[in-house]
């Protein structure tokens, strides 16, 4: 799927989201594709990657690639997808209430706290830098 190629046409299938108790459902119009033309993946960055590619004629291909953030309350190990009547449905079940038990996966904790970690690291750097520059300044006074 090379968008820079002249024989590739990038398309934008229509996407919709519905939120139900217990799951989130993403639907996408994929009438031009068979289930073999489609890929649904969960990336390391906890995004849902949906792509499709199909030959149409004379070597020309049509396709798409979408990356969508997975909501924090989704159990990524239970995500499922199916194609029916030209519609791709990706069901994203929400986690059972593990939040109250304190059970949080390392990657999820890191994603939730990345800004706090970055701000904390920057604050430590500033404090150390100021202490070092103050010490250098005090040595020069003596």
From TrEMBL:
InterPro entries xrefs: A-crystallin/Hsp20_dom
Keyword set includes Transmembrane: yes
Name of one Pfam family that matches: HSP20
Transmembrane as UniProt keyword: yes
Transmembrane stretches, start-end: 114-132
Domain SHSP: 6-118
Keywords: Membrane, Stress response, Transmembrane, Transmembrane helix
Family to which the UniProt record says this protein belongs: Belongs to the small heat shock protein (HSP20) family.
The protein's name: Heat shock protein beta-11
């Amino acid at each position: 799927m090379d968008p820079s190629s002249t024989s590739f046409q990038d398309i934008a299938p229509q996407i919709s989201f519905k939120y139900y108790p217990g799951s989130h459902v993403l639907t996408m119009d994929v009438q031009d594709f068979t289930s073999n033309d489609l890929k649904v993946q969960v990336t390391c960055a906890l995004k849902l990657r949906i792509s499709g590619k199909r030959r149409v004629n004379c070597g020309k291909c049509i396709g798409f690639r979408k990356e969508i953030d997975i909501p924090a309350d989704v159990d990524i190990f239970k995500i499922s997808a199916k194609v029916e009547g030209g519609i791709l449905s990706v069901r994203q079940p929400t986690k059972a209430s593990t939040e109250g038990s304190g059970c949080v996966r390392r990657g999820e904790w890191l994603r939730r706290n990345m800004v706090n970690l970055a701000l904390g690291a920057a604050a430590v750097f500033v404090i150390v830098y100021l202490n070092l520059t103050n010490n250098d300044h005090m040595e020069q006074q003596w």
